[in-house]
From TrEMBL, chains A, B:
Keyword terms, alphabetized: Magnesium, Metal-binding, Transferase
Name by which UniProt lists this protein: Polyprenyl synthetase family protein
Cofactor: Mg(2+)
Domain of life per record: Bacteria
Recorded family membership: Belongs to the FPP/GGPP synthase family.
SUPFAM superfamilies recorded: Terpenoid synthases
Organism whose genome encodes this protein: Mucilaginibacter boryungensis
A Pfam family per the record: polyprenyl_synt
PANTHER family according to UniProt: GERANYLGERANYL PYROPHOSPHATE SYNTHASE, SHORT CHAIN ISOPRENYL DIPHOSPHATE SYNTHASE
Length: 324, 324
């Protein structure tokens, strides 16, 4: 069994070895550029880790892992256009460094490249893997569209929100694990279980991210604490607060949401106080815990010795035990 | 054997029968919308026609034909954003009717849907078909990028231009025919020949389009005669004229290109006169004829009785015998 670090190194090398045509430069240079920006390469590492857990040769899963990484970066390139984001991993985004048309078209080409890479799985599992890959890709598009449409809506239900983060983020973890498991020789049943593990873990992780935005330790949490509050982002916390707030809290919360020139520190403190009053943190943690429990229940049902599962379990634990 | 009209009707019905999820509406409604705008459905009809010519059951090629049509419309949706086009087939474009982000994301989802449709070919040819499809898709992206980058360049060579139209337009005709042929049971050799037929025919057709823009009969040619001249579009004619013009013609041509407030009628007449002086029409017709000859040479080498080839030949003839 190989640990996360070793698998990430394999991906790192494989990404470096990816070669694209030199012409036309404005199509292929942006692809090499975004893939060179780094990131933790967790999604492709999950492909390898699942393959490894089922006793497969990780070398045989490298192309599929790259397919997941190229697909993920394609979605980032297009999301950055939609979000008008100036930076990605601290570097200038493709649509800013080149232009928007280049970013649209290079993203399209990456989707094709991701398919080419994924098609290199063995014949015996080709159709199954491509079906998972396309279902995942369609779901990620749906999740992104839900996310964008939520921005312009007054209210979003907690169920709608969970479904959005499931599609936008969680199913790619599930899909990566399932494809890796199939390459490693997993049964359909175990492949389904590891998909559920990834999907539910992804939802729990995203809920944790929402909690950390408000309650995280600024030194340990990578982003600015309160950033979601300042941007009025419809996180699980805000959605639950809008659902349960009555009278004074409801009016106060709405006032802060409507106040576009509020002092940042005051707004974060005031909204956090309303969350505290409504016990939103506890509700969010309960929800997060419920998804984590589902994830680990599926994981425990996978028919593998514990020794084979240790790195996957360790990965899941590390994902969910960030300091508050 | 079925004629073009009958095959187009099959496609028309199949496009109508395509059903997409109702949620999220801003992802799937634009897909149904662009597919409902019509068009001649030539590319998907070519899939069926090639399948039919090789004695295959066209019903078994309908999903692949739809894949080609959905892919083609995905490229149109994204091209329209890049070109800032207000209209597509006389109707409002997706990025104008919804917004740009919707058009980016719905296009992405169409690419996934095209893959899902293409994956429904039989196992025996699955890998071969998906390889053709992805190579074609990558080529189309390359062609679009070359086309965009040519706009900002002073000079483009005739070879570069031919390669651009080959990638942007012609190879999708070749790919559609080749995939249809394989579904119909063609040998690899015949599948390669029909690809060359489509590719070379596509180049000839595009060159004819360049000629018709200047020398077409305004009543028969669908677009405004001289439109390419007015927009300084680097067509085969302009490229050849810039290559061969000397002294007076060269200076005159450059003056008209630089004159952004020229009277339209005067500009078209003057540039056409320079083309006439340089015998550009004859050069372009020779080039077009050379590609048509290559197309028909490949077509004639396909190991099929003439009766099986009649509709494909008729299609090619109809494409290239437009009145000037």
């Amino acid at each position: 069994m190989k640990d996360l670090q070793e698998l990430q190194n394999i991906i790192l090398q494989a990404v470096k070895d990816l070669k694209y045509p030199s012409q036309p430069p404005d199509l292929y240079e942006p692809i090499s550029y975004i893939l060179s920006l780094g990131g933790k390469r967790l999604r492709p590492a999950l492909v390898l880790m699942a393959c490894d857990a089922f006793g497969g040769d990780v070398k045989k899963a490298v192309k599929a892992a790259l397919a997941i990484e190229v697909f993920h970066n394609f979605t980032l390139m297009h999301d950055d256009i939609m979000d008008k984001a100036p930076l990605r991993r601290g570097q200038v985004t493709v649509h800013e460094r080149w232009n928007q048309n280049v970013a649209i078209l290079a993203g399209d080409a990456m989707m094709v490249e991701a398919n080419k890479l994924m098609l290199q799985v063995p014949d015996a599992i080709l159709r199954q893997v491509m079906d998972i890959f396309n279902d995942t890709a369609a779901g990620v598009c749906e999740g992104q569209q839900f996310d964008m449409s939520f921005e312009s809506r007054d209210r979003v239900s907690a169920d709608e929100y969970i479904n959005m983060i499931r599609l936008k983020t969680a199913i790619l973890l599930g899909g990566a694990l399932k494809i890796g498991a199939l390459i490693g020789g997993a049964s359909t049943k175990d492949a389904d279980l590891i998909y559920t593990f990834g999907e539910q873990l992804g939802i729990a992780f995203q809920l944790q991210d929402d909690i950390l935005d408000v309650y995280g330790d600024p030194d340990k949490f990578g982003k600015q604490v309160g950033g979601d509050i300042l941007s009025n982002k419809k996180t699980y916390l805000l959605i639950k607060a809008l659902e349960s707030a009555r009278e004074g809290d409801a009016a106060g919360l709405q006032q802060w949401l409507d106040n576009i020139s509020a002092d940042p520190q005051q707004k974060v403190a005031a909204v956090t106080a309303i969350y505290n009053n409504l016990q939103i943190r506890e509700q969010a943690e309960q929800a997060m815990q419920a998804y984590a429990t589902k994830a680990f229940a599926a994981f425990d049902s996978i028919d593998l010795p514990n020794a084979n599962k240790q790195y996957l379990r360790g990965f899941a634990d590390s994902l969910l035990v960030r300091e508050y």
